[in-house]
Structures are given as structure tokens and as C-alpha cells.
Protein: AAA family ATPase
Amino acid sequence: MYDQYYGLSGKPFQLTPDPAFYFESATHRKAMSYLGYGLAQGEGLIVITGEIGAGKSTLVAHLMDTIDDRRLTAAQLVSTQVGPDDLIRLVATKFGIDSEGADKADLLRDIEDFLNAQARAGKRTLLVVDEAQNLPLAALEELRMFSNFQLGNQPLMQIFLLGQPEFRDTFQESPSLEQLRQRVIATHHLEPMEADEVEPYILHRLAKVGWDGNPRFTADAMDELYKASGGIPRRLNVIAGRVMLAGAIDEASRIDGEMVREVVSDMGADADAAKESRATAAALQDAAPAAAPVAADARPVEFAPAAMTLAVDGDRVQHARDSRVAALEARIAELEAQIADQEAELRRAVTLMINWIDDGDVGRPTRRTRAA
Structure:
């Protein structure tokens, strides 16, 4: 929507990792240096960690985009909580090895044969494991076994491990991973961007989609974007995208700090409402009477309209706390009203944007509206 209003060729702040939007901040430059060093060495493991949204996946996408597949065969695995045998099967599949019906020994032999064939053809093999924090220790040990494959003195597989901060802690502290740690030749933790990197990052992504200076971001808008995102690229993308949408709805050619603060405030209110809704649902579930065992000769369950009562076996009566239920019901009604207002605002915003696209001047807003 906002990309059409501002005449952009695409969405500059999409959340899907795209190597075309790779931005080399200071911390990403260091990470790429380590990865390049690892590729030059042709052996061992490289470990890259970072917070959620720090740009690990974009870093990998950029790396894979720059690899010369005539000299290097690379496979990327986004790991889940799989056991060691399943991990071996996944690795085999990533390298195009048929794993159907094969046991662990057969798969390991097939993988080693594949690696030897690559080496004889003058090609090296790289395995990139993303979200490594999801792997159990036993599966990590299997990765160490891969690093043992050699042709003469030449290692047959190199491994890059990428994960969230908890993986760094596990990797450094677990006694069972000592042998794996000894094979690591470099590590790096992706830090958030610095404040002075936010503006180049924003302008870099805008330039990739044909931005011509409209809208213009003021200096205080960049300051607010940094404060709200903490320099985490994914958070920055989310906020900047919402700010651009707000600018399109307001037909703004200038985005300043006040607009960013308003959008961030709206996003916080949305998040708070969602949390309250979840808390209310959980509280209602907790307040509901627990089901009691029913004897063969039990009387039917009876519900009193004023105060809910449950009669089982004639003697067993549990009184629901009417005041708490009433309060919860009132809160639900309040939240439903808020949601209805937000949906109305969203429908209004969508209608305005459709009118702009279809009719030019029809339906242009006369006041500031915020997307829910």
C-alpha cells in the first residue's frame, strides 16, 4: 500500500531475508570477515550468534548469494529440535542424497562418498546450520562427526553455525561439547546497530526500491527510530514500515520524530491490548469450575441463573465467584469495543487507500488516521 503511494518498486522494510537489501553495518562487516576467513581456511567451524532479528538470516542469504558454485557446494539447514539420526537425514537431503529407507550407517557412508566426489572434482563443501540453538547436544555431536571426514589431510566439510544468544551460552559452557569447541576457528556475536548507522540503513533500503526523496525523514525521526528499535534490524523494519504506512495515509511528504513517536505509541497500545486479551482469556479459564467425577447415581448438573452452582451427588455444591466473573465479563466487553474501534479504523484506512489508487482524488482523508 505505502509503496504504491510513494511510487516505490517494492517494500523496503519487508521482514523476509533478502540478500538484495543486505546492509553492512560494523558488526555485520566483522561477521562477514570471519565467514570469509573460514572459507579461506577450508576447515573447522565458524559460530555466529545474535539476538532475534539481528540479521543472521540476511547475513546467510548474502553469503549464499556471493558463493561461486563452481568451486563450492553449499547447503543451508534451518534446524529444528531433531535428534541426531534425523539431523543426518536432513543433511543428506540438503545435498541431494536419497535418504528414503536408509539407516544411519548407510546415510553416513553416502554423505562421505558425496563429499569425496566433490573433493575429487575440485570443489569444497559447506554446511550452514541456522537456528542452531534448537539442536539438542546429541545432534551437535553429529555435526562434529561430519568435520572428521577427510580425504588425505584435506577436510571434506566445513560448517557454519548460526544461533541465538542462548546457543552461545550452551556452546561455551556445556562439558559435552568440548571436542566440538576445539574445532571452532572463529566466533562472532552480532551486536545491534549503532545510532549513527540507522539513517544509512534506512536510506540504503529505500534506495533499493527507487526512493526519490519522498517522504523525507528528518534527523529527529531517525533518532526516534533508533530509540524504538534499539538498533535491531528486524524491529527497525517493523517500525519503519508502519511509519511509512502512516505517512501514506496522512499524505505526508515529511516524516518527523513526532510521527514516529505516535506510531510507536499505537503499536505499544496494540501489543498491550493483545496481552490483556490473552490474560483475560487465561483468567476466565482459571475461574471456570473444574470438572468433578460423576458417580453412576449422580443427579444432573443444574445451573442457577443468578449464581452458578454445580450440584453433584446431591451434596457437592461449588459456588462460582460471581463478582470475579462479572468483572472479567465487563473487561471482555471493553476489549471487544476497543477491537471494534480498531477494525473500523483499519477498514477506513484500507478504503482510503483503495480510493487513492482507483479514483485519484476520491476519498482523500481530511484528518490524520492511524492504522490499527
